[in-house]
Specification:
Elements: E1 3-7, E2 10-12, E3 18-25, E4 34-39, E5 46-51, E6 57-60, E7 68-73, E8 78-83, E9 92-98, E10 103-104, E11 108-112
Parallel strand pairs: 2-11
Antiparallel strand pairs: 1-3, 3-8, 4-5, 4-9, 5-6, 7-8, 9-10, 9-11
């Protein structure tokens, strides 16, 4: 059974940056596309970004295009989300997701506020 450890969340000021990490264990990480999702209070979970097994980003939500970058290091079994130019509306719990196994991280809080 795959398990994830997410890190890098917290409080950032508008215009600031955070980098989320999601380290996986218990699966052959390189075989699966990975994604980041987020869920704000009172809203449905939404897809933020997806990256292929080979490391090519192939989806960004319109709301994060040009500001967020998804990447992965298969040697470290880790997927990242670099978040720049953060806005208050980016405040949410962020989850990593492994497609194919339909596995989810525990979620990590990101709060953007002055």
């Amino acid at each position: 059974q795959v398990q994830f450890v997410e890190s890098g969340g917290g409080l950032a000021q508008p215009g600031g940056s955070l980098r989320l990490s999601c380290a996986a264990s218990g699966s052959i990480f390189s075989l699966y596309a990975m994604g980041w999702f987020r869920q704000a209070p009172g809203k449905q979970r939404e897809m933020v970004a997806i990256i292929t097994t080979g490391g090519t980003p192939n989806y960004y939500a319109d709301s994060v295009k040009g500001r967020f970058t998804i990447s992965r290091d298969n040697a470290k079994n880790t997927v990242y989300l670099q978040m720049n130019s953060l806005k208050p509306e980016d405040t949410a719990v962020y989850y990593c997701h492994q497609f194919g196994s339909n596995s989810w991280g525990q979620g990590i809080q990101v709060t953007v506020s002055s």
